[in-house]
Amino acid sequence: MPWVISFVISWILFFVLSDNKNLKKYIWGGVLAVLLASIVDYGGQKLRLYAFHEIIIPWATCSAFYKFGPIFTMGILFSQYVPKSKWLQTAHIIACSALYILLELIIINTGVAEYIHWNTLASFFINVVTFGSLTWFTLVFIRHEQINY
């Protein structure tokens, strides 16, 4: 049931916060988020770093409700709100990584996920790398911006 609840809450928040007129453009942020999360979660479970339980509809060893709820909607919203400033992009990545950690801890506390050989700090690091990659993807492939380092 926690998977379904997180799915419903994610979509409610999505409809409240999303920019519907640019949805067609930013949907690719959600697609990439699902792809990256599926790869990471498949590998994480095969390596016995963590486990998911009570999966209703499986998707890459996790719940499809989770992938196409929180992951998909957060990927789109994250992409829609990537700021122009490099400093604000860094803050955006860190803030979204922290928000995702909160979601993860709620899921762990409900018992449908568990850390085996994993911890919150490792998750935060993976989240920063993932959101950093999603920022780059958004700037280069969705907004077609020139990146100068």
What would you say about this model in short?
This protein has 149 residues and is mainly alpha-helical. Helices cover 70% and strands 7% of the residues. A hairpin with a 2-residue loop joins strand 2 and strand 3.
Describe the structure.
By secondary structure, this protein is mainly alpha-helical. It has one domain (2-13, 24-142). The protein contains 5 helices and 4 strands, in the order ααβββααβα. A hairpin with a 2-residue loop joins β2 and β3. It starts with a helix and ends in a 7-residue tail after the last helix.
Q: Which terms summarize this structure?
A:
single chain, 149 residues, mainly alpha, two-stranded antiparallel ribbon, 5 helices
Count of DSSP strands: 4
Number of helices: 5
Sum up the overall morphology in one term.
globular
Reported for the largest beta sheet, the result is: 2 strands, antiparallel
Major sheet strand order: 1-4
Low-confidence stretches: none
The percent range for strand residues is: 5-15%
The portion of residues assigned to helices is over 70%
Task: Compile the SSE list and pairings.
Layout: H1 2-17, H2 23-46, E1 50-52, E2 58-59, E3 62-63, H3 64-80, H4 86-110, E4 113-115, H5 120-142
Antiparallel strand pairs: 1-4, 2-3
